[in-house]
Structures are given as C-alpha cells and as structure tokens.
C-alpha cells in the first residue's frame, strides 16, 4: 500500500482521534483487523476505515500490509509506544471515579508483601470485625500498586515510599527477618529467587553462607512456599521472625538484629476518611502495636 499523502495539509490536521487510536491498539493487540473487530464490537470495514483515517491524519503508514498479516512500520511502533500509556490511563479512569463515589458497600483493599499479608491473614477475623459489614480484599504483591489511581485503599510498605501528592505515610511498626531450619546445624539453604526485588534477601543470605558454608538446594521467591519447604526439612530459609518463632518445628539460626524492616501504612486523601477504610487503618495500627514484640523477633 502506498504511504498516506504527505502534503502540507497533515501539518495542520487535528489531533488523532482517541477512537481511532483505540482501534489501532486493538489491531496491534489482536494481530488483525478481524480480531480487533471482534474485540471491539465493530465491523471489519469500520476498523479498516478507522486505521486509514488515523494514517491519513498522522501522515504516515502504521502497518505494512501483506498476505494474511499486518506488521507495524517503524512509525507504527513509535505511535504504539506513545499511545499505549493513554490506554492504561483510560482503564484507570473508572477506578479513580469509583474511589470518589460514596459507596458504603465498597470493599477495603489492602496491598502488602506476601509476608505482611500472611501476618494479616492470621488476624483476619479481627480485621474483618473492624471492616464490617464490608469485605476486605487482600492483595499480596511486590508490585507497588497505585493508590493515586485507586488500585488499593491501604498499602503497607517497607521501603522506597512514593512521593506523590495527597498520599500520607505513617510508620506503624517493624518486621524482623532471620534464617530458620528444622535443625540448629543446617545442611543446606533455600535461597530467594534471582529477582532484583529480592536483592536485599540475597545479600543477607550471602553473609549467612559465609558463616554456614552449605549448598543452596533450591531457589524459592514466594515466602509462604519457602516456609512450607523449610518445614519439610529441605533447608534453612529466610523468613519473618513472627512466623518462624511461632512454629515449634523451626529453629532460629541467628539473632534478627541484622535485618529489621520498618512498616509504613500509606493512604490517599480521597479514601482516608471513608469510614470503613478509617476503621481498618486504626485496627492495623493497633494490631502491629499489640504484636510488636513478636514482629520484632523479641518474643522467643
């Protein structure tokens, strides 16, 4: 196909239509105009017309047409890179709007790491009572969910706090970590995965191996799975002290002084005063205060 005309009129054309860009993104995502048509509820001729209109508006060919295939041109790849964030922003709009709607039945969403979420789940009945009658949604992830766009209502974070407008951070306690095994003389260790987000655990383990030169028998990034593996006798594992100290089958192999993380509770201004969110936040503060010795690795 010949490239769209590049006469002087393109320079003064209007901004690209969002509907045309959305159709372009659907074609890229589904690999064909027929696939984009099925996904968007349009007809194939409508999709083709929108792509042609977008190309004429921008003055460049976005796809190289071939037998039963479409390939992005260099210009098409550049437009994809620029327009993809627009699609993500559009998907965030309903979440943001919902966060501002007075919805007394909306659940309270808490995001935290797996180790913190596991601690919360142990005290789930207490937190459920504080949230009642609405539900609590627990979101265990290392990904920093966006409070500004409404992905969560409360975030419990231990490092790299975001500096965003209308976010508040309150230190609510600490969590200590250590190495635990079924035996006081470990014969192997379970290492964290090689994910960059776990580099601090890897550094801690490296120091441990200098004192206990034993082989690495497995790599497990997920903390609850690593805990179960340690319980079976697979090897020593890096665990939160509240969990390791509470298990009579596990032995702590060193004091937790080296590795203690501060825990911060973060909320956005628009959800901070929602009654259910406020009650759950207060319950979290009380929970961490009441179990501070256990969380700090002191209750042994």
UniProtKB/TrEMBL annotation:
Q: Which family does it belong to?
A: Belongs to the LysR transcriptional regulatory family.
Protein name, please?
LysR family transcriptional regulator
- In terms of domain of life, where is this protein from? Bacteria
| Pfam families linked to this entry | HTH_1, LysR_substrate
> Which species is this UniProt entry from?
Microvirga terricola
Q: Which of UniProt's keywords are assigned here?
A: DNA-binding, Transcription, Transcription regulation
- Provide the HTH lysR-type domain boundaries: 18-73
């Amino acid at each position: 196909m010949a490239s769209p005309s590049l006469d002087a009129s393109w320079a003064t054309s209007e901004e690209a239509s969002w509907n045309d860009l959305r159709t372009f993104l659907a074609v890229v995502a589904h690999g064909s105009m027929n696939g984009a048509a099925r996904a968007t509820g349009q007809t194939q001729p409508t999709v083709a017309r929108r792509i042609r209109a977008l190309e004429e508006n921008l003055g460049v060919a976005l796809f190289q047409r071939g037998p039963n295939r479409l390939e992005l041109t260099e210009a098409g790849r550049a437009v994809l890179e620029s327009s993809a964030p627009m699609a993500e922003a559009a998907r965030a709009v309903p979440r943001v709007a919902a966060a501002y709607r007075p919805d007394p039945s909306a659940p309270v969403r808490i995001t935290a790491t797996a180790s913190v979420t596991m601690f919360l789940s142990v005290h789930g009945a207490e937190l459920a009572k504080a949230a009642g009658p609405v539900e609590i949604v627990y979101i265990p992830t290392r990904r920093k969910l966006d409070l500004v766009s409404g992905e969560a209502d409360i975030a419990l974070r231990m490092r790299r706090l975001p500096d965003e407008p209308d976010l508040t951070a309150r230190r609510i306690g600490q969590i200590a970590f250590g190495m635990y095994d079924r035996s006081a003389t470990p014969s192997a260790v379970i290492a964290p995965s090689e994910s960059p987000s776990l580099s601090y655990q890897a550094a801690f383990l490296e120091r441990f191996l200098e004192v206990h030169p034993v082989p690495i028998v497995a790599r497990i990034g997920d903390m609850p799975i690593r805990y179960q593996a340690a319980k079976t006798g697979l090897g020593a594992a890096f665990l939160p002290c509240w969990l390791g100290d509470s298990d009579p089958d596990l032995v702590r192999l060193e004091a937790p002084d080296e590795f203690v993380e501060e825990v911060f509770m973060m909320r956005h201004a628009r959800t901070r005063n929602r009654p259910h969110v406020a009650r759950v936040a207060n319950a979290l503060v009380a929970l961490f205060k009441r179990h501070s010795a256990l969380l700090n690795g002191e209750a042994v």
